[in-house]
Design a protein that fits this description.
CATH class of the largest domain: Alpha Beta
Order of helices and strands: EHEHEHEHEHEEHEHEHHHHH
Strand order of the largest sheet: 3-2-1-4-5-6
Largest sheet: 6 strands, parallel
Number of helices: 12
CATH topology of the largest domain: Rossmann fold
Strand content: 5-15%
Shape: globular
Number of strands: 9
Distance between the termini: 54 Å
Amino acid sequence: MPDTFSVAVLGTGTIGAPMARNLARAGLDVRAWNRSREKAEPLAANGVAVAGTPADAVRGADAVLTMLHDAPAALEVMERAAAGLAPGTVWIQSSTAGLDGLAELAAFARERELVLVDAPVSGTRQPAEQGTLVVLAAGPPEVRERIAPVFEAIGSRTRWVGEDAASGAATRLKLVVNSWVLTVTHGVAEALALAEGLGTDPEDFLAVVEGGPLDMGYLKAKSQLLLGGSLTPPSFATATAAKDTELIVAAGERAGVRLDMAAAGLERFRRAVGQGHGGEDMAASYFASFDGTD
């Protein structure tokens, strides 16, 4: 189908893989590449063409979607893809890049004459699998209709916040959203850790707040992971949460905003990673309240 919109997905981890599947299910022509090819291979069963190199994945694609660990990883992979990139290709940059990282990615896009759309997403593994991520986007109005099928396939809604991707409007919003998500995560972790330390049944705590203004879906979700010992596979890994918190703290410093809770949360994530919980769900912040790995 030569008229089918084609998308190259670079990075098929926790969020990227379900993105690729949902794009294929929506009828788009999807190619995918991942640094560890074995993680991308299962996508072939969903009609995704798995490429051996980033350049092979992007060659002839109408749009390139990057969902990689951070800005340096996204830049390195796009440099490897350069031989297959054509001027005018839309680059949907969905990695959480941070403000300084986004500036470097925007410079690459200008050099290669790519149309950059900064489009980080709000949501973790389950929303990604369900195609209900929230897309936070900034980019030229003239490409929005063209890439709408991409966003409709991966998300429940799109929030456009600017016309210039390089302005960082979408990335700034993503950092604000993540600051709230990570604060709530630490709150759940510390409350359950205190219950453990005081010998209080955590189910009693959950029962007290249930249905009231202090209750929320995130409290239930993260509590269930901790109480059920179901931290793998992660919805959002602790090591990645630490990286994102570093970006949040740096953005706050750059803006002259003191983020005491984010800074303390970063130390919690770092302790949990040091205890061996980096690959587990970020609810593993819980373990930072105790010595050792248990």
